[in-house]
Amino acid sequence: MLQLASLRRGETLVDLGAGDGRIIIEAVRHFGAHAIGVEIDPARVSRIKERLAATGIEAELIEADMFDIPLNSADVITIYLSASANARLAPKLRAELAEGTRVVSLDYPIPEWKPERELEVEASGIERKLYLYKVT
């Protein structure tokens, strides 16, 4: 996801629905990005904090609903959400993201957005699809 987004050193990545924190950890560790994870589930937030401490990675973690936080500081947004969540999120992304911001979605496209690139990848023996969008 991060390679497809062409994430660069110093850029800000926001992972919406940060899950286990792997995206924000990789963004800092391998790309030198400023990473922000947004996660609503307190148990997942605790697990991400543990992983950050164990890896020594510094990233920002926000325990909140992704619909309640501003996204305008992002250079790259990563999402692994359902099709219905992507549909609900699309107007917020369009309203808040600057031109040129990249959005990468795993498995589910953003309805009514035209991807700049689609990429099929294999992860743990499972075929997955990545969608790269650029805000215009």
Relevant terms:
136 residues, alpha/beta, Rossmann fold, 7-stranded mixed beta sheet
Short description:
The protein has 3 helices and 7 strands, in the order βαβαββαβββ.
Q: Detail the poorly predicted runs.
A: none
Radius of gyration of CA atoms, rounded to a whole number: 14 Å
Give a count of the beta strands, DSSP E runs of length 2 or more.
Answer: 7
- Find the CATH superfamily: Vaccinia Virus protein VP39
> Beta-strand percentage?
25-35%
How far the N terminus sits from the C terminus, by CA atoms, comes to 20 Å
Output the helix-strand order. EHEHEEHEEE
Task: Give the helix tally.
Answer: 3
Q: In the residues, how many domains can be counted?
A: 1
Secondary-structure arrangement, i.e. CATH architecture: 3-Layer(aba) Sandwich
Helix-strand makeup class: alpha/beta
Q: CATH class, please?
A: Alpha Beta
Lateral arrangement of strands in the main beta sheet: 3-2-1-4-5-7-6
Fold-level CATH name? Rossmann fold
State the share of residues found in helices, binned by percent: 25-40%
